[in-house]
Design brief:
The chain has five helices and six strands. By secondary structure, it is α+β, with helices and mostly antiparallel strands. It has one domain: Alpha-Beta Complex (Aspartate Aminotransferase, domain 1), CATH 3.90.1150. Helix 2 runs parallel beside helix 5. The termini are far apart.
Amino acid sequence: MALSVFDTKEHPPQESELQAALGRSYMLWTDLLVWLDESFEPVTRTWQFNGLKWGWSLKIQRRKRAIVYLTPCKKHFLAGFALGEKAVAAAFEAGLPEEVRQLVNDAPRYGEGRGVRLPVRNRTRNAAVKTLASAKMST
């Protein structure tokens, strides 16, 4: 089973399918997309199929720099980041909730930064995603 609720390569998720899969979290998804558009314009959105293990995710980038990867799941979504140490420090200074700080601290470290996947089911988590995106783009 794929990480994404959308796991068939034939076509990227359509808006109606996305809304049905995310349920109430669809509102958080759209709020985040609008915020990203306004905060970091110009942004590009690209659906990517990353194989049967991962499924479809939406890559949000500014020019050539990836900001966040959004992976639709059943009734929620994941926000994935590669955070360098400067971005981590900036995010911690911005006042992330303790549970999110712990997720960032526990994230695996790669050459491009810490690989953080944050499940989003409520406004508090959506706000944390915005904080992480702001921190990443400020460094």
